[in-house]
Design goal:
Structural class: alpha+beta
Shape: elongated
Radius of gyration: 32 Å
Bound molecules: adenosine-5'-diphosphate
Oligomer: single chain
Helix content: 40-55%
Distance between the termini: 72 Å
Strand content: 15-25%
Largest sheet: 5 strands, antiparallel
Number of helices: 8
Order of helices and strands: HHEEHEEEHHEHEEHEEHEE
Amino acid sequence: MDQDWPEFFAALTYALDREDWRRGLDTLFTTLRPHFLFDNVVIYRAETRDALPEAIYARALGRGRSAEAEASWGENVANTVFSEGKIVHLPPSTPSSENRLANPHVLGLPLSLADGRGTLFFIRFGGPPYTEEQIHLASLAALTAALILDRRTLREIRAQLDAARHRAQLQDDFLAAISHDIHTPLGFIKGYTTSLLRSDAEWDRETQREFLTVIDEETDRLVNMLDRLLDSARLQQGMLPMDFQPVRLEALIRDMALRMQTRVPTLRIALDLAEAPPIRADGVRLGQVLENLFDNALKHAPGAPIQITLQAMPEKQSIIFADQGPGIPPEHLPFIFERFYRVPGESAARGTGLGLFICREIVRAHGGQISVETSPGKGTAFRIDLPLQPPPSPAGTAMREVP
Ligand code: ADP
């Protein structure tokens, strides 16, 4: 063999370093092939000694047959290599001189993997048989392939750990936020009640009313927060019941806008609503989605005008809810629909990071989707696409009834 070893090893290192393990294996085998002739290569893996081996990678680099065809007959031989744990060299069972494709020379090498056992097969049709030097080279390829697969496993474990750490961080942040958010209204309620109960003070009717109004509003705030918590826990477990009825989105939006306008008279709301036939939806839950979007606009884009558009298409209807507030920094966009996620550093705006999670889950339970477009300084636009009918079976997690 006429080898250029420095170049060969540089290619193996490159194969090991590739982010995508399949591409890493592709590089490995294309690097190998000029030095060591084979037609097909297949890798099997089994997670335990007793589990059935499964083909996880197959490539046809040479003459005849497809990689998939090889993958199907290889299971038996893979079992042999698994059980013997050593290199297996199988010449054609019934050599036939006419048909090269009927004469496969199979070389099976065991792979010792971090998460189980594997076998690497080389198939060469019609010979010649593998030489000892070629078997050494194939063993080097098996070691490299095992390293590539182990790196994939490590990357997966790392991603799982990162996700778990991210969830734990969200829960910590949530606990901090919720304790603060519960403390604040309770502090008001306690303070004003104590004042009213003081035996050494006389309050005129107007002051009493003022104090009681604060107590009333802060109690509403607490109840609202607990409702959200409950809803989000039920949505998470797929236990929030949905009551699908014919709903006119145009009327729902108008109604909600009117209510918000009454609650906040200075709010500027512009509506651009297409005439649209009713869709099957849960009007109360969709109202909750709109209310959450209004609450967010009031909290995170105070004073900014709001524009709501309804578009009707033959297969779906879309609501676009846009404000002209500060927008959301792009690095936070992938997370804002997650449970408990809040953009950090927003001390002024109270929140629990549940609003958008609840919106997303309710929209999903309708078989629809919610997305966001935003650019800092230019505002935020949420888009809700709803099908005319919810999915027939419980595709959304939220469609099962409360037992
Ligand atoms: P919260 O209860 O904290 O408002 P949400 O789930 O409703 O939680 O929103 C998640 C985050 O998305 C908020 O903390 C906020 O930073 C951001 N956000 C949501 N709506 C808007 C908006 N209209 N303008 C700017 N930021 C927004």
